Amino acid sequence: MPKNSGSLENNLKHARTGLGLTQGGLARRSRISRQAYSSLESGSANPSTEVALRLAQALGERVESLFYLTEQPPVALEAELVSGVFSDAAPGGPPQRARLFRVGSKLLTRPLAGADNTRHAVVAAEGLVVYHGMDGQDGRVTVQPFDLEEVDSPTLVMLGCDPAVGLLESGLRSRGVALVAAEESSRQALIGLANGEAHVAGCHLLDDATGGYNSSWVLQLVPFPCTLVTFAVWQQGLILASGNPKQVSGVADLANSGIQMVNRQAGSGSRDLLDRALAGAGLSGENLDGYQREEWGHLAVAAAVASGSADAGIGVKAAALAMGLDFLPLEEERYDLVVPNHFLSDGPVQVLLDLLRRPVLHRRVESLGGYDASSMGVQASVN
Predict the structure, then answer these.
(1) Alpha helix locations (H) across the chain?
(2) Cβ(199)–Cβ(262) below 8 Å
(3) What is the CA radius of gyration of the chain?
(4) Per residue in 195-250, pLDDT tens?
(5) pTM of the predicted structure, to 2 decimals
(6) pLDDT at 91
(7) How does 275-286 read in b/e, with b if 16+ C-beta sit within 10 Å?
(8) Which of 56, 65, 176, 195 fits a 20 to 30 Å CA distance from 275?
């Protein structure tokens, strides 16, 4: 396209010839001289506001479609990789889509590469990782954001495994807060919180010694004071094929010949629950076909059973119902959101706490099945 003085470009010739007009004809319509119009189309002059408006009116176009600024080079920011994640982006190589977000004073990024980042849907990205540093191990990367303003907009970063987290997204967005959620096991979510990589971590970890949920694990893994905010009590158990064709009536049946199971990853509350149930039945994972096969979320476990590649898996009732599967309950668990006290007064966290108090969210969560949201929003300090 013709480039005017400075960085202004134009589409005048394309718009003019599309209407079958000569330069002189368009000049007359726009009430400017033929010479003046020729200078504009060739890019050797810039139009005044009045002339630009006349040309747009004569051509039936918007001014910004006729005249526009040269694209500026993309902004590049230095960000820190979240723990346990590696980027293989290199100079001259293909860039990687990535989440880009702030937690406190940190600018963090999570590259979106690999099957465990799809979560049965394409995950939104805020930019592209274009370079990972000379050795690739220093934890710093160069990221080109799609929209620089978006990087500094209010964001709530949440780690955890609850499939109901998506129900928070519309409420947060309507209040100007973007949700950045990553699926992690309960222990890994707490470790990410301890590393300053999230505002909130979800967990459902039982303390065998006390019989209580989550508090002792937070004290063990997170080095600063936190508040537990109850999300819900959920039913967790065995997700089974529709109609339960293998007649599974308890965890002991998972050791039967011909039954293939699918598991959650080590460090998840679901894996812990299965191991407790197996120990109570006098079994270990060595007795089960598929025990070593790990999926990263409740819905992924349900999808494996629904596809027929597994007969049973450990997960929440809501995931089974979502895919039309059978469910055998094993235990009720409390799923808490862990919030560092230094984030409690932050705007996005305050929006989240307000949403948790609203009955409409309680109803939406309970409609998934297997959730009791009557205690949603109840807080308890962990020091």
Answers:
(1) 12-18, 23-30, 34-42, 49-59, 63-66, 148-151, 167-174, 186-194, 215-221, 269-280, 298-306, 317-322, 347-356, 359-366
(2) no
(3) 28
(4) 999 999 999 999 988 888 999 999 999 999 999 999 999 999 999 999 999 999 99
(5) 0.72
(6) 65
(7) bebbeeeebeee
(8) 195
Classify residue 227 by its DSSP letter. E
Write down the residue that tokens 């000379």 correspond to. Answer: 134
The tokens describing 96, both together, are 């990687």
> What element of type H or E holds 178?
strand 178-183
Distances (CA, A) of 297 to 241, 300, 317, 319: 17, 5, 13, 9
Answer for the pair 189, 202: CB distance below 8 angstroms, yes or no.
Answer: yes
d(CA 107, CA 81): 9
Is residue 180 within 8 A of residue 151, CB to CB? The reply is no
Instruction: Identify the residue whose tokens are 């929209």.
Output: 147
Tokens of 302: 């349900």
* Half-sphere exposure at residue 287, Cβ-oriented, CA atoms within 13 angstroms: 14
